[in-house]
Amino acid sequence: MQQQFTEIMEQFESVLQRQRSISDVLDRLMEVLGGRAIGLWRCQSGKLVQLGFRADSQMDEQVKREFSALTQEVSLKNTGLGIVKAVIDQKPAIGTLQAKESGLQGSSEWLQKFDAKQSYAIPIIEGDQAIGVLAISTNQVHQAGDPEWELQAQIAREIGAKQFLGMF
Questions:
Q1: Average pLDDT over residues 40-62
Q2: How are strands ordered across the β-sheet holding 35-44?
Q3: pLDDT, tens digit, for every residue of 65-104?
Q4: What is the pLDDT of residues 43-53, one digit of tens each?
Q5: Domains of the chain
Q6: How far is CA 55 from the centre of its chain?
Q7: Which residues, in sequence order, are CB contacts of 104 under 8 Å at separation 6+?
Q8: Rounded CA gap, 55 and 161, in Å?
Q9: What's the rounded Cα separation, in Å, for the pair 114 and 18?
Q10: Cys staple from 87: which of 28, 40, 125, 130, with CB 3.0 to 4.6 Å?
């Protein structure tokens, strides 16, 4: 996983140097993590602004378009979504198909549409503040300590440490 971490962070740096598309990096990360969909958002004026969203090529095109359009800007008051909860709580938010268990009704609905089992949103912290979120939906169930979870968390930490989101 360390090699994949290094590769993905080099790709993020290439995006910032305008040599790559954010879509390329998200596609690679989604592949490594075995995801159905992945997105990156930055906090801005009480909302999350989508920097990139990618979905598995097998996913229904209408679902992809709808999710992408509805998450271009997301109010931080929409606490039924894991991406919002992760930023507000400044800790990972796990969405499951069971909305009552996760408390994330919106995430549960999207998981069903994505034909996924779980989503996990990792806040991107810069200093002591959540400035964004990196989220993925998968067919797998992961938890802290699993290699996939740890890789995503490590990437989110590094994005914050290098202050990448402010450069997009």
A1: 96
A2: 73-75, 47-55, 35-44, 129-138, 118-126, 93-96
A3: 999 999 999 999 999 999 999 999 999 999 999 988 888 9
A4: 999 999 999 99
A5: 2-167 (3.30.450.40)
A6: 11
A7: 80, 81, 82, 85, 93, 95, 96
A8: 27
A9: 30
A10: 130
Q: Say if residue 116 is exposed, middle or buried (CB neighbours under 10 Å; 0-12, 13-18, 19+).
A: buried
What token pair was written down for 108? 């549960």
Give the integer Cα–Cα distance in Å for 7 and 45: 32
Q: Say how far apart CA 15 and CA 11 lie, in whole Å.
A: 6
Q: What is the distance between the alpha carbons of residues 147 and 144, in angstroms, rounded to a whole number?
A: 8
Query: Residue 133: pLDDT above 80?
Result: yes
With CA atoms as reference, report the closest residue to 134 among 116, 113, 117, 148: 148
For 24-63, give one letter per residue: b (16+ CB within 10 A) or e: ebbbbbbebbebbbbbbbbbeeebbbbbbbbbbeebeeeb
